[in-house]
Amino acid sequence: MVNHWVRAHFEAGTAVFHEGDLGRDAYLIERGEIHIVIDRGTERRLIATLREGEMFGEIALIDQMPRTASALAAVDTTLIPISRDLILDKLRHSDPLLSHLLEVAVSRFRNTLSGHNPLSEGASLGDESLRHLRQYAVNQLHMAQNLSDALANDELLLHYQPVVHLEDGRLAGFEALIRWNRPDRGFISPLGFIGVAEETGLIVPIGRWVVRTALADLVRFQAAMRARRPDARLFMSVNLSARQLQEPGEVPELIDCVLASGVDPASVKLEVTESALIDHPEQAASWLHEFKRHGLLLAIDDFGTGYSSLSYLGQFPFDTLKIDQSFVATMREKEPSLRITRAIAGLARDLEMDCIAEGVEHPTDLPTLRAIGCEFGQGYHFAKPLNAEQALDYIARKG
Ligand code: C2E
Ligand code: CA
Ligand code: CA
């Protein structure tokens, strides 16, 4: 690891760099004064005087092109160099779209300075790993535009996966899972587009659409259920992203959607992952309490895969804990998975939450899960996610 942080001292009258030098560093003036000058034959033109706290040399740092002016120490001066390597490292970890925009802006600025058409092919940040980011940024933009069109063109739909009582296999509720039916490509899994929706903020309107659509279908499902057993209850789980909790005004908006749907709020369960809570735990806790105040149920999703501390669990008002499918799917062959599944079920019980095992695929999992005190199961063993008509059919057969 190179140490980028070595101060540079310049005596009055000496040059930090000359016009035409290849740029590698930018500088922050810690103490002293810098003159930026351009020499034209015998004439020297002062174009800027920079003082403590100001920065210079940044454009060449980014695109590694020749300097367009010289920098001289006007008095004894101390500089903090900012190396190109440091900036490239930061760019690799930044939002790809931001680094791409920076590159375009630098290139246009360069072209303007050198008297070319600003839109002509210009300098690039010149780093191979950034090329991938650039491609990624462009792909994300296409995907975001298509996703936004998809919402407007009714290409999004929900599938519903049954959640059952492990005790006797009775239907307890459904989890709404989004799908994108692209006219040119067929069904796309949420794993392929929820990330872009979150990064671009599209998850906010999409998430509202999910709540409205799922609850409109819940009204139909509950009616079908009552036709079979008048006292039967049925809940609907909806996944929430962190971004929806962070968006100002969105939680009251979602609560309004629930209240307007006509379903009992106590039959609506919102699923959030541990990672959704970790960045702004106080804010998240206050929104989760707001949902509870209106009677909604809350579930912690994919439990055991995040990084949250256990103290969060006590702080957030969860009703349900969902054991991640990675433990459930492997508990048959792997003793540690079985122990973890059992420990998580015990934790849920002690914290007075009910517990759903995700990813139940095998009939031999059922006695195990019952024995460790897990009340509910969800997985391919019971049913894959179903479209609304198939879900109604499932209710008619198994409700
Ligand atoms: P999740 O919330 O953990 O959803 C469960 C995923 O496991 C679903 O994948 C489901 O189809 C799959 N699954 C269910 N049973 C089994 C099983 O027995 N075996 C296996 N191998 N898989 C099973 P899906 O539908 O592809 O959803 C993936 C993720 O996308 C969801 O994970 C959730 O995080 C996200 N997601 C889906 N819909 C929405 C939505 O409306 N909003 C948000 N924010 N996220 C959503
Ligand atoms: Ca979920
Ligand atoms: Ca899950």
Helix percent reads 40-55%
Strand content: 15-25%
- Number of E-state strands: 17
Low-pLDDT segments:
none
The mean pLDDT is: 90
How is the main sheet built?
Answer: 8 strands, mixed, barrel
SS content category: alpha/beta
Cofactors, ions, other ligands: ligand C2E, calcium ion
* Radius of gyration of CA atoms, rounded to a whole number: 29 Å
Q: In one word, what is the shape?
A: elongated
Question: Largest beta sheet: what is the strand line-up?
Answer: 9-10-12-13-14-15-16-17
Termini Cα gap:
62 Å
Number of helices: 15
Present the secondary structure layout.
Layout (H helix, E strand, L loop, with lengths): L7 E3 L4 E3 L7 E7 L1 E8 L2 E9 L3 E2 L1 H6 L6 E4 L3 E7 H9 L3 H18 L14 H25 L3 E10 L5 E12 L3 E3 L5 H7 L2 H26 L6 E5 L2 H5 L3 H12 L6 E6 L1 H4 L2 H13 L3 E7 L6 H6 L4 E4 L1 H6 L4 H16 L3 E4 L7 H7 L4 E2 L10 H11 L1
The protein binds ligand C2E and calcium ion (CA) (2 copies).
The site of one calcium ion (CA) has 4 residues, from loops.
Summarize the structure.
The protein is an alpha/beta fold. It has helices spanning 58-63, 84-92, 96-113, 128-152, 194-200, 203-228, 242-246, 250-261, 275-278, 281-293, 310-315, 325-330, 335-350, 365-371, 388-398; strands at 8-10, 15-17, 25-31, 33-40, 43-51, 55-56, 70-73, 77-83, 156-165, 171-182, 186-188, 235-239, 268-273, 297-303, 320-323, 354-357, 376-377.
Tell me what you see in this structure.
With 399 residues, the protein is an alpha/beta fold. The chain is 43% helix and 24% strand. The protein contains 15 helices and 17 strands. It has helices at 58-63, 84-92, 96-113, 128-152, 194-200, 203-228, 242-246, 250-261, 275-278, 281-293, 310-315, 325-330, 335-350, 365-371, 388-398; strands spanning 8-10, 15-17, 25-31, 33-40, 43-51, 55-56, 70-73, 77-83, 156-165, 171-182, 186-188, 235-239, 268-273, 297-303, 320-323, 354-357, 376-377. The strands form 3 sheets. The chain has an 8-stranded mixed β-barrel, surrounded by 4 helices. A 4-stranded antiparallel beta sheet has the order 1-8-3-6. α3 packs across α4 (128-152) and α6 (203-228) runs parallel beside α8 (250-261). The protein is elongated and about 95 Å long. The relative contact order is 0.08. The model has no long low-confidence stretch (mean pLDDT 90). The structure holds ligand C2E and calcium ion (2 copies). Ligand C2E is lined by residues 161, 177-178, 189-191, 194, 203, 210, 239, 241, 301-302, 325, 359-361, 379-380, 385.
